[in-house]
Amino acid sequence: MRWISDSGNDEYAPIARLYDTLLSPLLMPLRREVRRIAERERFRHILDICCGTGQQAVLLHRAGLRVTGLDLSPAMLRMARKKSPPGLPYVRGDAGLLPFKDGQFDAVLFSFALHEKSTLLREAIVEEALRVLSPGGRFMVADYLVPVRSDLTALWRSEAARFIEWCAGENHYRAYREFMNSGGLEGLLARHGLEVLWRKRYHGGATGLVVSAKRK
Predict the structure, then answer these.
(1) Which of 55, 94, 157, 167 could pair with 204 as two cysteines, CB 3.0-4.6 Å apart?
(2) Chain segment 50-103, per-residue pLDDT in tens
(3) Buried b / exposed e across 150-169, counting CB within 10 Å, b at 16+?
């Protein structure tokens, strides 16, 4: 199923200028790990879906990697273009209806973008990402994990994340709850038949970065 999610409203306009200031300290270690993986795997062309202000795309571009950023928010893309070196392409587009050919990229990337989407839209976005991923390509995603009940640090960090998501608004929080109730990041990968090749936990086990691929 292909999905068009553009409602005509830019929900990120109020926070675009503050986004990196608020979140960069939390996300930068993870973003550097993504760059290390991309360099090691020698990806030829990476699609950063829901790229936001472009911070991850800039890191990849400065490492000499070919990357294209895509986002639906005009405000986020304005910030991305303002902060990026010349030659880094950004596309305004819907993640549920990607304007790219089948198999065009050998790596696709999501950074904390899937948990905030409604269930139907989230599943459609993943299917679109897999459509544009080449055979043998890598599906990289960072998002929330369902904490292990015996891991008190992960439980505490997850409760802190739940509060942050609640503060983001009713629709955002509803999507987050649906995401977590359906297994979080690992549940999403399993539903789409993706094999986990590498993983690392962050933020006390509340979040994770996973490199995966379509099962053969």
Answers:
(1) 157
(2) 999 999 999 999 999 999 999 999 999 999 999 999 999 999 999 999 999 999
(3) eeeebbebbeebbeebeeee
Tokens 């199923």 locate to 1
Between CA 199 and CA 216 the distance in angstroms is 19
pTM (2 d.p.): 0.91
- Strands (E) in 15-65, as ranges, are 46-49
Crossing angle of the two packed helices 19-41 and 74-83, in degrees rounded to 10: 70
Give the separation between CA 153 and CA 200, rounded to whole angstroms: 16
What lies within 8 Å, CB to CB, of 201 at 6+ separation is 145, 154, 207, 208
CA 34/CA 108 separation, integer angstroms: 11
Every domain of the chain and the residues it spans:
19-214
Buried b (16+ CB within 10 A) or exposed e, 191-202: ebebeeeeeeeb
Q: 19-214, superfamily in CATH?
A: Vaccinia Virus protein VP39 (3.40.50.150)
Residue 144 CA to residue 177 CA, distance in Å, equals 11
Between CA 87 and CA 95 the distance in angstroms is 22
